From TrEMBL:
UniProt-recorded Gene Ontology molecular function terms: hydrolase activity, acting on carbon-nitrogen (but not peptide) bonds, in linear amides
Domain CN hydrolase, first and last residues per copy: 45-295
Upper lineage: Eukaryota, Viridiplantae, Streptophyta, Embryophyta, Tracheophyta
Keyword Signal annotated: yes
Keyword annotations of the record: Hydrolase, Signal
Protein name, per record: CN hydrolase domain-containing protein
Signal peptide: 1-22
C-alpha cells in the first residue's frame, strides 16, 4: 500500500474543445437529497485506488475485493475504487455474457453488503450487467454508497474494438452493448464523473462531465492492455486531469489473468494540476494506494487558471475548407 501527499508540478496547457457530441447522449444526474458537492468544500476525504488481477472465478475475485475493502477501511479510507471487470475475467469468448446479472442480482448484492458492512462508498468499474438480449451485456460502472445502496450506474459508451499492434484483436462490441447516458453523481467526496477504460481516449466525454455537469473527480476504472498501457496510460490520465482541472482516480487491472489476457496495471490518483499523488510502488502488485482529496485544491486551480471562463467552443464558429 502506498500513500502520497499533494505536490506541485509543472503547468501544462489544457482545454480541449467540448463537444457537439453532448447532443448524442443523455445525461442522468443523481442528487438523492444531497446538497451539490460543488457548492461547499469540506475537509479532505481519504480515498483509495485498488489494483488487482481478476480471474475467471467470481468467488475468488470477491474474496480479494473483500480483503482489500477491509484493509482500506482500517486505513481510514471512506471511498474505495476498484478496476474494470473486478468481479470476473473469463478465458473463453462469451463466458461473461452467461454470468451477466441485473444490478439487483446476487453478485452485486454481495458488494452492496460489503459497502454497508465497511461503512464505505465503493466504485465498481466494469460490472457485467445483463444486457438487452441473451447475447449481450453492458459494461457497467456501479457506484454504491456506505448504506449499501446503488447510488447510480454508468454503461460504458466507447467499446474497445481494436487490433492492438504486437498484441491481439479485441472486439468488445461482439458481446457488449454500448451505453448512451453520461452520468455525474454528487457524493461526500465531490461531484463524481463516471467513465470506464477506453472512454479515456475520448476527451470530449470528460469535457462534458467537467464543463456541462460540474464534475470535480473523474473515475476511470480500467483494464488497459500491456502494450497500450506502456505507451499511453499515464499520459492520457494526466491530460484528462489537466484539461478538466479535476482529480482523476484510475483503478487498474494488473498482470496475467489467463493465457490470453494481460493487463498493464499502475493504479494511480492524480490531482487537478496533473500531479500523480498516489500510486502503488509495484505496477503489478495487488493492493491499494491512498490519497486525501482536497476539493479546495480544485477550486484554487480553477480560480488561478480560469479556463471555464476562457472557453470558446460552445459558440458557433465559422469554418473554412479548401479542396
Amino acid at each position: 500500500m502506498a500513500r502520497a501527499s499533494l505536490a506541485a508540478s509543472l503547468p501544462i496547457a489544457a482545454a480541449a474543445a467540448a463537444a457537439a457530441a453532448a447532443a448524442r447522449f443523455r445525461f442522468r444526474p443523481s442528487f438523492r437529497g444531497m446538497a451539490s458537492a460543488s457548492a461547499a468544500v469540506g475537509a479532505p476525504a481519504r480515498v483509495g485506488v485498488v489494483q488487482m488481477t481478476s480471474v475467471g472465478d467470481v468467488d475468488a475475485n470477491y474474496a480479494t475485493c473483500s480483503r482489500l475493502t477491509k484493509e482500506a477501511a482500517a486505513s481510514g479510507v471512506k471511498f474505495l475504487c476498484f478496476p474494470e471487470v473486478f468481479s470476473f475475467i473469463g478465458s473463453k469468448d462469451g463466458e461473461s455474457v452467461k454470468l451477466a446479472e441485473p444490478l439487483d442480482g446476487p453478485i452485486m448484492q454481495r458488494y452492496c453488503s460489503l459497502a454497508k458492512e465497511s461503512g464505505m462508498w465503493l466504485s465498481l468499474g466494469g460490472f457485467q450487467e445483463k444486457g438487452p438480449d441473451d447475447s449481450h451485456q453492458y459494461n457497467t460502472h456501479v457506484l454504491i454508497d456506505d448504506s449499501g445502496k446503488v447510488r447510480n450506474s454508468y454503461r460504458k459508451i466507447h467499446l474497445f474494438d481494436v487490433d492492438v499492434p504486437g498484441n491481439m484483436v479485441y472486439k468488445e462490441s461482439r458481446f457488449t452493448t454500448a451505453g448512451n447516458t453520461i452520468v455525474a453523481v454528487d457524493s461526500p467526496f465531490g461531484r463524481l464523473g463516471l467513465t470506464v477504460c477506453y472512454d479515456l481516449r475520448f476527451p470530449e466525454l470528460y469535457q462534458i462531465l467537467r464543463f456541462k455537469h460540474q464534475a470535480q473527480v473523474l473515475l476511470v476504472p480500467s483494464a488497459f492492455t500491456k502494450v497500450t498501457g506502456e505507451a499511453h496510460w499515464e499520459i492520457l490520465l494526466r491530460a484528462r486531469a489537466i484539461e478538466t482541472q479535476c482529480y482523476v482516480i484510475a483503478a487498474a487491472q494488473a498482470g496475467k489473468h489467463n493465457e490470453k489476457r494481460e493487463s498493464y496495471g499502475d493504479s494511480i490518483i492524480i490531482d487537478p494540476w496533473g500531479t500523480v499523488i498516489a500510486r502503488l510502488p509495484d505496477r503489478l502488485s495487488t493492493g491499494f494506494a491512498v490519497a486525501d482529496l482536497d476539493l479546495s485544491k480544485v477550486e484554487a486551480v480553477r480560480t488561478r487558471m480560469p479556463i471555464s471562463e476562457h472557453r470558446k467552443f460552445d459558440s458557433d464558429w465559422k469554418s473554412s475548407t479548401q479542396q
